[in-house]
Structure prediction request, 356 residues.
Amino acid sequence: MSQSWTLAICTYNRPQILRRALRTTLQQTRLPNQIVVVDASDDWASTWQAIRDEGLTDVPGIEWDYAPAEIRGLACQRNQSIRAVTSDVVMLFDDDTLLYPDCAEAMMRVYEADEGGVLAGVQARRVPEPPDTDAQVGPNQAISDQADPPSGKGQVPRAGRLWKRAQDWFGMTRYLLAYEPMPERALPDELSGMGLTIHHSFRGAVMSYRTEVIREVGFEEALQRYSYLEDADASQRAARHGLLVEAYEARACHLEEHSGREGRYPVIVMGGTNAMLLHRLHAQDPEASRRAYRKILSRRSWYLLAKDVKARDFSFAGWRGTREARSVCDKIFDLPLEALRAWYAEYQSDLWERKS
Prediction:
């Protein structure tokens, strides 16, 4: 059964890369029914005018909804964009995510094959080469860390395995731990053979959901100034409603442009505090989360101290930031929820003001 899809993008002070991303959307072999943009920039109206002047809104059959952000912050902007969606599926890509021409078609093929409605979301496969340059590769050539379509566990060199285990131990590979034990799940027959891999959470740059699922789940608006982990949080909660899968044939390049982002110290702090806040609000066993994060943040601080020294960062931003995050661990897990939300809003503002 044919389903409709909406592209929903949130942006802030990046008009050029936004227009580049929109161009790749308008080159899709299966165009969206709707494009929603929530722009937190002060001069959002001039960006919207530039998009129209370029003729991007002239493609027939696409409804546009371009609006200023009601509240600046990625989680709040994502929720605002979802409220405007009129399609069955919403693709919540970043403003620096560039789509290969058949990306949306490959993702929608998966949704439409899901006869039993077991899917909550589908994400694209991240590839390093942008689709809008001469550096493209052929459709049959491997262009990601995973050299072949998923067919079980792949081989990892021994040195690679040891390094990954070391990073796991230091808490560097997964900042948002699982909210609860993940059940073993299998793909239904109608989805087998489609190059799908089951995931327990998504990365925001290339994620999509059934609109009804993500509208019910929402993004956590307690993350205001720096919404890091908002994607992992929402996807973990969406996974309670159905399977999350990655579609190998759906390719997208995330440029990871860093313009407009905050300094290193507050980012390091909130890599820990955001995770703990989300666990307090949404985890099955917050006390177990408290114990886990106290241990992880202690280990991570020593890893980042070594990294600071290697980088000759004698402000020791990584080490100090992680130690600050650990210092508020008990406060995050002890405060009543209403008081926690109020305190965390003030804490974020104070952290951005002092920067260190």
